[in-house]
Write a structure and sequence with these properties.
By secondary structure, the chain is an alpha/beta fold. The protein is built from 14 helices and eight strands. It has helices at 10-21, 33-41, 50-55, 71-80, 98-110, 126-129, 139-144, 146-152, 168-196, 204-211, 220-231, 247-258, 263-275, 281-294; strands at residues 2-6, 25-29, 45-47, 62-65, 89-92, 114-121, 132-136, 160-164. An eight-stranded mixed sheet has the order 3-2-1-4-5-6-7-8, with helices on both faces. Strand 5, helix 5 (98-110) and strand 6 form a beta-alpha-beta unit.
Length: 302
């Protein structure tokens, strides 16, 4: 099959290369000309505008978006649709909010165009390992596009699937990322506890390597942790600041809206928030209250 790829950052570029290797024709476009040149070197066709990309594609066209969530997706769709035709399909492979995907699907349906949301997981490792694809959209459209998904996935019959109508793919990916927060937090807390048990002089790298085989907590995230500790056993030079992509927030809000308790996922998100505050005011309030009612010492700010 052939398709256009908009957004040739690391993940978009690796997906393009995997598609080209799988025998698909890909026309890539990006605001950065150097990014386009890099995928052309890997066998893709290039374009320096959306118009020129669309002109190189046969109808019905398939266009995959790998752009930041929110306004950039809407803006890109607004630029694309006047040049597209009924029967064309837009696939959003980024981390969009699922309700936005539902809205976009409805808007494109009025123009007799198709919208598919693909929750995509795998990062830069997807080039070699394949991507996990959680897909939302019309069943017949997804079936027609299956050669694309089969090429991007770890295998033709594994690691991908249609999970429901438009919006369902990004909903499942949203919850996937919330779970990811919780798993990462559990590993981090366990290793921190080991580090504080000074009397045993525990080797974190040794322990995580042991866990890689036979342990019920073995996982790809653990493998990545082992890789990181091998390179930097004491994590020197790494700041204790953890960003959040937004999907953890969306997951926590969904739990509130549906009345579903998510203590692990929400707690992991709270820890990230705390790490982003270099001088948490709440801790100052706690110190002040202890001083007021008990005369407990207060440390001076550094």
């Amino acid at each position: 099959m052939e398709l256009g790829m908009i957004g040739l950052g690391k993940m978009g570029a690796f997906m393009t290369e995997r598609l080209v290797r799988g025998g698909h024709r890909v026309v890539g476009v990006d605001r950065d000309p150097a990014a386009v040149s890099r995928v052309v070197e890997k066998g893709a066709a290039g374009a320096d505008s959306l118009e020129k990309m669309i002109a190189q594609l046969k109808t019905p066209r398939v266009i995959w978006l790998m752009v930041p969530s929110g306004a950039p997706v809407d803006q890109t769709i607004e630029q694309l649709t006047p040049q597209m035709a009924p029967g064309d399909t837009i696939i959003d492979g980024g981390n969009s909010y699922y309700k936005d995907s539902m809205r976009r699907s409805d808007a494109l349906a009025q123009k007799k165009m198709n919208f598919v949301d693909s929750g995509t997981s795998g990062g830069v490792w997807g080039l070699t390992e394949g991507y996990s694809l959680m897909i939302g959209g019309d069943a017949e459209v997804v079936k027609r596009l299956s050669p694309i998904f089969q090429t991007l996935a770890p295998g033709p019959d594994k690691g991908w699937g249609r999970v429901g109508p438009a919006g369902a793919g990004h909903f499942v990916k949203m919850v996937h990322n919330g779970i990811e927060y919780g798993i990462m937090q559990a590993y981090a807390e366990g290793l921190d506890l080991f580090r504080h048990k000074k009397e045993f002089n525990l080797d974190l790298l040794q322990i995580t390597k042991i866990w890689q085989y036979g342990s019920v907590v073995r996982s790809w995230l653990l493998d990545l942790t082992v890789d990181a500790l091998t390179k930097n056993p004491t994590l020197d030079g790494i700041g204790a600041y953890v960003t959040d992509s937004g999907e953890g927030r969306w997951t926590a809000k969904e739990g509130i809206d549906l009345g579903v308790p998510l203590p692990t996922l929400s707690g992991a998100l709270d820890v990230r928030f705390r790490s982003q505050d270099p001088e948490p005011f709440a801790n100052k309030v706690l110190a002040m209250m202890r001083n007021e009612f008990g005369g407990h010492a207060v440390q001076k700010a550094k």
